[in-house]
Amino acid sequence: MTQSGLMRRIGRRGVLGGAAALSLPGVLAGRARAQTKPVLRIGVLGDQSGVYRDLSGPVAVACVHQAIEDFGSHDFDVEVLVGDHQNKPDIGTSIAREWIDQRGVDMISDCPNSAVALAVAGVCHEKDRVFLNSPAATADLTGAQCAPTTVAWTMDTWMLAHSTGGALVKAGGDTWFFITADYAFGHALERDTGAFVTKAGGKILGEVKAPLATSDFSSFLLQAQSSGAKVIGLCNAGADTVNSIKQAGEFGITTSGVKLAGLLVFISDIHALGLQTARGLVLSNTFYWDFNDSTRAFSKRLQPKIGDRRAGMGQAGCYGATLHYLKAVTSMGLADAKKSGAATVAKMKSMPTQDDAFGAGSIREDGRALHPVYLFEVKTPAESKGPWDYYKHIATTPPEEGFRPLAEGHCPMVKS
């Protein structure tokens, strides 16, 4: 579908009013001409200005628009609103409520920051609207706090702990110290990784909580180093992860035999660090732009919208989830989809997933989207063949093994 065939509006009101105005290549901002077709409204609620901007932000918005383009012709128009939750649950829920109650939003996507995601998931459940989360990592979205209106698309703390944590323990990293972001996501990632380490016979020697958007990690890193742990587990993300790794290098920790475990690392983090600093880091992702012909084709289509950047897995998840949502809406009919978010998510679960970013997959009854999980090692500068050529593929975990077993999540929707 051409851009003129879509209604793409980005709200011009302030963040608390519901949407933040953005300017993106290939995106039509402002009011479109009066429409004759019915309208489906999507809200992209991300971090446009804070610590998670590089793993969410404008690239996530561009990925949603790419999904709309790739979906093609249909008998309804699509309106996209963009909001900045500022990593504050109260702002996130305020935007979500205003969007649903006053703007008629049918689906909310993106939403990094687990505390915000859990709060917005609650609003969408209450209002019977679809919530397609991508970058928030808490496994509680498909566990104790699962909802019939929620799909968790990209990754979660159990998957990250199982893949990255498990690999490092097998490689001899049997003593750990955690530096943990002090909110829901960090706590969940430390919990899940610690469980894998101890189950494998390892020991947790200590942990320290660091506030979100910490600029100076020196005291936390020195505590970790003095513990004698072989592995320092970084239970943080975005700029916090970048600062942790940079400062660990400045203290000589990475050259002293201690292994840094980046438990949630995005390609934007590696780009910010540079290969000289990030080389050898082991990480888990469900998407890499240069993994195969399909991921490269998706990235090539997206490139005009994002310039000299590449989408990370959370942003690509906004693409895959939105594309599958549009397929479900078309299958059941727009009128029925707008009536009930729970019914729409049920339709999404009944259909196999397929897109260029993640390939073939499925959505379980607890709302967990299942994809292969890839273990990568960051290349050295000499191994890289060009810009954004950062990862060496080490191993693949199949979808049915890469995520928490259904029975262990304690999702109240799952009947034993």
What does this structure look like?
The protein is of the alpha/beta class. The chain has 2 domains: 234 residues, 3-Layer(aba) Sandwich (Rossmann fold); 166 residues, Rossmann fold (3-Layer(aba) Sandwich). The chain contains 14 helices and 15 strands. Helix 4 runs parallel beside helix 5. The termini are far apart.
Question: Tags for this entry?
Answer:
416 residues; Rossmann fold; globular; 4-stranded parallel sheet; 14 helices; 5-stranded parallel sheet
Topology summary:
Blueprint: E1 39-46, H1 57-71, E2 77-84, H2 89-103, E3 107-110, H3 114-127, E4 130-133, E5 150-152, H4 157-170, E6 175-181, H5 184-199, E7 203-210, H6 218-226, E8 231-235, H7 239-250, E9 259-262, H8 267-273, H9 275-278, E10 282-285, H10 293-306, H11 313-332, H12 334-339, H13 341-350, E11 353-355, E12 359-363, E13 369-370, E14 373-378, E15 391-397, H14 399-402
Parallel strand pairs: 1-2, 1-3, 3-4, 4-5, 6-7, 6-8, 8-9
Antiparallel strand pairs: 10-14, 11-12, 12-13, 14-15
